[in-house]
Amino acid sequence: MPLDFEITKEQEELKATVREFSEKYLVPRVAEFEEKRMIPPEIVKEMARLGLFGVVFPDKYDGLGLDPITAGLVLEEIVRGDVECSLAVTWLVHTSWGYVAYKYGSEEFREEVIRKAARGDLWVGIATTEPGAGSDLVSITTTARKEGREYVINGEKAYISGVREASEKGTWFKEGGGHVTLAYTDRSKAHRGMTLFFVPLTDPRVSIRLEKELGRKGWSWGSFVMKDVRIPETYRIGEEGRGFHVAMEGFDHARAYIALTCAVAGKRALEIATDYIKQRRAFGQPIARFQGVQFQLADHWSSLEAAHALAYKALWALKMEQEGKMGRFEVTRIAASAKLFAVRAAKAALDDALRWMGAFGYTEENPVALAWKAVKSYDLAEGSTDIMRLIVAREYLGKEYIK
Amino acid sequence: MGLNIVVLVKPVPDPKEPPKFKPDGTLDRLAMKLVMNPYDKYAVEAALQLREALGGTIVGVSMAPQHAVDALREALAMGVDEFLLLSDKRLAGSDTLATSYALSMALRKLWSRLGRVDLILCGMESSDSNTAHIGPQVAGWLELPSVSYVDKVLEVGEGYVKVKKLIEGGFVVLKVKLPAVLTIAGTSYVPRIPTLRDVLLARRKKVTVWSVDDAGIDPSKVGVLNSPTRVIRMWAAEIKRKGKIIAEADPDKLVDLFLEELKKDGITLR
């Protein structure tokens, strides 16, 4: 019987509540996120009050215990209000990596850190990339050395979201935040010698540096250096040597939410562009009367509709995995397909939509341009488009064809 | 101790959606999504702030078909403790007089159950009919003092409430005996967005449904046939804007010409 696109009354009510927040707090201020390169702290605090940071964490740790599909419905309303996608980044990084940190974290860690994350008092980020290692994660150089009941971490992480917000206590989050950070505990074992740790960016031995991101400028982006940072062993996420695998699981979550973000930002921007071409006239008629534009419009709405449905399939796959009904590899493949397809569909749609708007489309505050820049970032982040193709190809061809 | 507060809430067709009409011209409420009357949110917010300051309980009361219960959950999510829904086919089509009578009977019964009611709060009007009748009429049936268009409740003391009431061009401060009926304007209170947890918990809060008989209502005083008001026809209002451009370079002359135009429409400046 199930296979149904209908949502429950409860989900509808949650969605309506987030929409109210989104229309009141986000829609009027999106251009400001970009211009000031900052999400106003009161918006993040209101999100925390509403419980938006606790959606997927279990009730036991002050979360709402909702499934990934319901979480997606929440995200959808955030993205509709903020096509610039800064808050989508804020929310989906925290939700994906916070969940994985909860799942593999120790009981002490859950009590101490996850509870704060679920309450919206602390933000959880992700740090795998380094100046010399992105897609090729085996080349990272960050190390973690065990000393008694602590780990001592040294290294540098680059192009990381939320470094400014996580390093400051009280401005956005009461306790600041930290990043789920990939390091070698045994360099000789390559990816089997990697381990994940939660590194608080409020630690005085962590120093940050900001980069200027092309789009989704509201949430900071930059690097951080860890110099003899000592963290308790309870901050290790998963077993030693399992870091790479746990990270891959986190990426599956993030990719499913990113697929949804791109589909929804693409659709919302296309709505705006569709309104525009009905108004704007050229050569004696509205632009929407030109068949060249109509055919593009039909293609893009169709592919975004498909991207949207596939994103929910990926979220459904995560839910199935949580219920023990689907294996890791299948989830990874569907999530990769969803991200691959959604990023492309949204990029293609917004590229044309921007052109329909002519010179006005190319202005900084134009919502289509804001969405276009945000979507483009996901060609690279959280596994590049080419890595998505490798994953999908590997799942269909078998590992003997792709190392 | 605290206050016992009753908030009257009306489910209305979602004002964000275009209205749908039946062939006879009345609103097709069944075909439209119902939401809590947006003006009632201010009354709920006022009640919540009073409860936060002084303690007590808030009971929501509504007269509506049973399927409207989803629209009332928003009030429960915001923080109303429980709901009493007056629902009976015999109430259908009641005008404001019959509605306020029915509500007042339910309130009398609720009153004896609670032992005491201190304040009855309402929105200043409903977004679908905008009569602003119900609050003052309920006060009339219950023989209670009533104040309409309250900007803010300033103080609740022993047996009285002090309110700031909006009047044309300003406000007055009134001290009123408790219990009282207040209709809350949308000027000072900012309705809170409920937290997601409260949205989920609202489904577990108590909603009691009363029929005409449960509330002790005289059926010969309610329903479309027993309402003195008759709706002859309903239609969507059409606003035709009249644009007129006065072309005059000299600002002084322009103002004179503008005033002339206003005079033609019967508007004069004193």
Please describe what this structure looks like:
The complex is a heterodimer of chains A (403) and B (270). Chain A has helices at residues 9-26, 30-36, 41-50, 68-81, 86-104, 107-119, 163-167, 243-279, 291-322, 328-356, 367-377, 385-397, and strands at 123-127, 143-147, 150-161, 177-184, 194-200, 206-210, 221-232, 236-237, 281-282, 285-286. By secondary structure, chain A is an alpha+beta fold. In chain A, strands 1-4-5-8 form a 4-stranded mixed beta sheet. In chain A, strands 2-3-7-6 form a 4-stranded antiparallel beta sheet. Chain A is globular, with a radius of gyration of 21 Å. Chain B is α/β, with parallel strands linked by helices and 270 residues long. Chain B has one domain: HUPs (Rossmann fold). The chains are: A alpha+beta (403), B alpha/beta (270). The interface between A and B is medium-sized, with 18 and 13 residues.
Number of domain modules of chain B: 1
- CATH arch. level architecture of chain B: 3-Layer(aba) Sandwich
Number of helices of chain B: 6
Strand content of chain A: 5-15%
The count of DSSP E runs of length 2 or more, i.e. the number of strands of chain A, is: 10
The named CATH superfamily of the largest domain in chain A: Butyryl-CoA Dehydrogenase, subunit A, domain 3
Question: Proportion of β residues of chain B?
Answer: 15-25%
Low-confidence stretches of chain A: none
- The Rg value of chain A, from CA coordinates, equals 21 Å
Radius of gyration of chain B: 22 Å
Query: Which shape of chain A, going by the Cα principal axes?
Result: globular
Helix content of chain B: 25-40%
- Largest interface, C-beta closer than 8 angstroms, per-chain residues: A-B, 18 and 13 residues
